[in-house]
Amino acid sequence: MAKRDKLASLLSGAVKQKNESETQIKAQIHIEPEFRDLIPPLKEDEFNQLAQNIADEGCREPLVVWKVPNNVDDELAGKYVLIDGHNRHRICTQYQVDFKIHMVHFQTRFEARNWMINNQLGRRNLTKEQQAFLRGSRYNSEKAQGQRTDLQQTSSSAKSKESTAKRIAKEYNVDEKTIRRDAKFAEGMDIIGRSNPELKQDILKGKVKVNKSHVQKLGEVAKDSDEVPILDVEDIYKRATEIEEGKAEQASKPAKQKIEEEHSEEKNAAKIEHYHVSIKKALEMAINDRDKYAFSKLKADLNNLEKLLFNK
């Protein structure tokens, strides 16, 4: 009897310790913008339905958390990074709903990023734009990884002479050219997102329709157009047209010079007003809803407004 009571006490203590540990981890969950932006955005009705389901049934699926090793050369070292379940985390945090977590282990950010992309591409409810963005993001990530000399490539695919585009194309049952176009599309979408995160999300959701080839054109000269503000669909078309017409000198001018030469006072005033409204909206959401995405958008808008006002 005494042994049974002692065993029960030990088991109870172990469960309590585990619960306390999970509680501590959940309180320390870190939202990394790079990873959050890989999650295809939900349409408004989809998000509302998810929120209603959680309100009725609780958060049934665990959120996936990566414990970043302490010994990696990364600013995330030692942090608990959310890599799946961002929408559920936002809802649960906002309405104080408890949730479970599932811990996963990766050695590098690169591995975690690829896991996220493959996990998302395995879902059925993706728009064509979201599929292209994810495939292209994976290609760009693997190409960047291949250019680094401080990381060892241990996978068999890294040792193969097969091109990155061809290997990824086989995996997703598309052709190699599609992957390369997807890569440019992903780069173009990232450029749009740096100036207007909301526009990027609306394009990926299918809420705003754009010519895919125009976005790909932005990606073709990513280094040059990175600092050129893309605030609306008209800016996407205008920039793509410049590139298509082969205005090399126009396309390669520094952002500061382009702003001075092209943007009239009227255009600047419209952009300033855009950021003014966007900042007020994001600030209100960040404060009232404790919305971390809104806070990130607020910082991005303030940064872009500073560049616009002071020609940085």
What report would you give on this structure?
The protein is mainly alpha-helical and 312 residues long. The chain folds into three domains: 11-125, Conserved hypothetical protein from pyrococcus furiosus pfu- 392566-001, ParB domain, CATH 3.90.1530; 126-148 and 160-253; 263-312. The chain is 68% helix and 5% strand. It is built from 17 helices and four strands. The chain has helices at residues 2-27, 33-36, 44-57, 86-95, 109-121, 128-147, 156-159, 164-172, 176-195, 197-205, 212-220, 222-225, 233-244, 248-252, 255-262, 265-289, 292-310; strands at residues 29-30, 63-67, 80-84, 101-104. Strands 1-3-2-4 form a four-stranded mixed sheet. Helix 9 packs antiparallel against helix 10. The radius of gyration is 23 Å and the shape is globular. The N and C termini lie far apart (76 Å).
Number of helices: 17
Parts with pLDDT < 50 across at least 5 consecutive residues = 13-17, 148-159
Q: Mean pLDDT, nearest integer?
A: 82
- The order of strands across the largest sheet is 1-3-2-4
User: How many strands in all?
Assistant: 4
Summed up, the domain count is 3
Distance between the termini: 76 Å
- The portion of residues assigned to helices is 55-70%
Structural class: mainly alpha
Largest sheet: 4 strands, mixed
Strand content: 5-15%
Write down the overall geometry.
globular
Which H/E pattern describes the elements? HEHHEEHEHHHHHHHHHHHHH
If you compute it from the alpha carbons, what radius of gyration comes out, rounded to the nearest whole angstrom? 23 Å
